[in-house]
Design brief:
Length: 239
């Protein structure tokens, strides 16, 4: 069964590479951010708990941020948004947040960011780059458990300076055989059109990367669904 799924995934990669160069109709996105999102009361409760002896709070670092990164249960619904909409969404208290741990944020900043982080989103774009990251505190600094960064742009000619980062958590990999680094990297190489669904998250730890390797501190983190546009329709990478 695993071999069949892998064959199907590689077939999607091949089809997506052909379609990536084809002209497609573009729809002008409204800059208005929807006011009735599919949201929950507290998304930090969407976790299965311990994963290979690593708790949702991780080990070290910002425990509140780590718990958000480890939301390995999916949102009940996904709100459609565009890369441009998310990049343009700037918290009022952005300057006050800075790089500080969330335990040092004041209430207004926490409430504002939580308004977005308690929702699931689905975003369509071009996969620009994929990279496996170094060990992090959210994964208890285990060298075997490392996130994948996926850079999402609006089109194949984009660079990463205005991109949106989505992250695949090692907690999700056991349930998704086709979320392999080589498959995702091939999709990025071919500038495949993808649709990613997951939780919204503000990662204050990467302020120095804005305008260089990302367009915003907002992320889709973690990703729960990966789809590829292939054969004239969207196909789940899981087959």
């Amino acid at each position: 069964m695993k071999s069949l799924r892998l064959v199907l995934a590689l077939g999607l990669v091949a089809s997506a590479s052909v379609l990536a160069g084809c002209p497609r109709k573009t729809v002008e996105s409204s800059p208005h951010i929807p006011t009735s999102p599919a949201a929950v009361v507290d998304s930090t409760q969407y976790t299965t708990g311990l994963f290979e002896n690593c708790p949702p709070e991780g080990s070290g670092g910002d425990a509140a941020l780590n718990r958000l990164k480890n939301r390995d249960l999916p949102p009940p619904a996904y709100q459609p948004m565009t890369v441009a909409q998310i990049v343009a969404t700037r918290p009022v208290y952005e300057a006050d947040m800075d790089r500080r741990d969330r335990s040092r944020w004041f209430r207004g900043a926490l409430e504002e960011v939580s308004h977005w982080e308690n929702r699931g989103v689905v975003v369509e774009g071009t996969l620009l780059k994929v990279k496996q990251m170094e060990p992090e505190s959210c994964n208890c600094k285990d060298k075997r458990r490392r996130d994948y960064h996926l850079w999402l742009g609006t089109g194949p000619g984009d660079d990463r300076s205005q991109s949106l980062i989505a992250e695949v958590s090692p907690r999700l990999l056991p349930a998704h055989d086709n979320w392999r680094l080589r498959i995702l990297s091939r999709l990025a190489q071919d500038r495949a059109r993808v649709r990613l669904s997951g939780w919204m998250m503000w990662d204050q730890e990467h302020l120095d990367q804005i305008g260089k390797t990302r367009g915003t501190l907002w992320e889709i983190h973690p990703v729960h669904v990966i789809e590829v546009f292939s054969g004239g329709r969207w196909r789940n990478l899981d087959g």
